[in-house]
Amino acid sequence: MGKNFFTNVLSTMLKGYALPNITDLSHVVGHFNELIRGKVLIVVNEVENAHLNPRSLSEKLRSMITDDIIVIAQKHKTTTLDVNCANFILVSNNDVPVRLGMNDRHYLCTRVSSKKVRQQTNSAEFYQALTQFFKRYDLNQYRPNDDLMNRTKRAILTQGANQLDSFVIDNYNKLCVGMYSDQIAPMIFRYHFPTKQAFWKQLAPLCDIDDEGSGSKRRYLHRLKDLAALKYMSIASSVGSEADHVFE
Predict the structure, then answer these.
(1) Do 107 and 245 form a contact (C-beta atoms < 8 A)?
(2) Pair 211, 220: CB distance under 8 Å
(3) In this predicted model, what pLDDT tens digit does every residue of 67-78 receive, in sequence order?
(4) For a tag on the chain, would you pick the N or C end, based on fewer CB atoms within 10 A?
(5) pLDDT value for 48
(6) Strand 41-45 vs strand 18-22: parallel, antiparallel, or unpaired?
(7) Which residues of 114-136 are buried (b: 16+ CB within 10 A; e: fewer)?
(8) How would DSSP label each residue in 60-100?
């Protein structure tokens, strides 16, 4: 039983309203996307195109997740508008299947246990069990924005982080209170910045900088701006404390 077993059964339950195992994302976010019209579930397997332009791909997927109306384009036909009812499941063996923003609120990330990878499972039995689960589940208890941060998601975020992101995450609490430039300076090359000037230039827009003292005793206090603090808060404040989502 592999990682696709669950999504294959779920797609079967939804019949004509699902797109199972899409490997070429151009069918979803490309110029010609007729395949996604009226689909309730789209399963993207391995995100084959993710290496082409990760930032652009991430933005297009985010738009597909949040927009109520989507543009449907067919080759040699008039472009039309349609109601967006799509939900996405992305399955992958890659550590970073899609690039996420530091304050992402669109993706719930889980990992699939390898505990039963060689176990044979009766799809009919699983189908029945899944049907019973959905019948019993109380949708009033569903909170789509709960528990979005966990160890799996944090791993994706940190592996996709640039040098400045890594510095802010590691020193988040200190930066919220304020760090002096002479405290920060010894850390710069640890994060593989080419020069100190490059680091200060990137950090400056994220911080309010207070000039304290004068002459040889002058010091610069760097404190994260409110928007920057909010951007990194969920990932930095949950280090080591969050529960994980594991499918077994």
Answers:
(1) no
(2) yes
(3) 899 888 888 888
(4) C
(5) 56
(6) parallel
(7) eeeeeeeeeeeeeeeeeeeeeee
(8) HHHHHHH-SEEEE--TTS--EEEE---EEEEE-SSS-SS--
Q: Which of 5-9, 171-175, 180-184 has the lowest mean pLDDT?
A: 5-9
Count CA atoms closer than 13 A to 57's CA, side-chain side: 18
Contact 9, 33 (CB under 8 A): no
State how far the Cα of 42 lies from the Cα of 88, in Å rounded to an integer: 5
Structure-block tokens of residue 75: 């080759």
Distances (CA, A) of 83 to 36, 43, 103: 11, 19, 27
Residues 103/232, Cβ–Cβ less than 8 Å: yes
162-236 maps to CATH 1.10.10.10:
yes
Q: Are 41 and 19 in contact (CB under 8 A)?
A: yes
Give the closest residue to 10 by CA, choosing from 105, 118, 87.
87
pLDDT at 111 over 90: no
The 3-state DSSP class for residue 44 equals strand
Domain residue spans in the chain? 4-155+243-247, 162-236
Encoded tokens for 175: 């930066």
Q: In whole angstroms, give the CA distance from residue 67 to residue 83.
A: 9
Distance (Å, rounded) from C-alpha 102 to C-alpha 108? 14
**Nearest CA-CA partner of 53 in 72, 29, 78:** 29
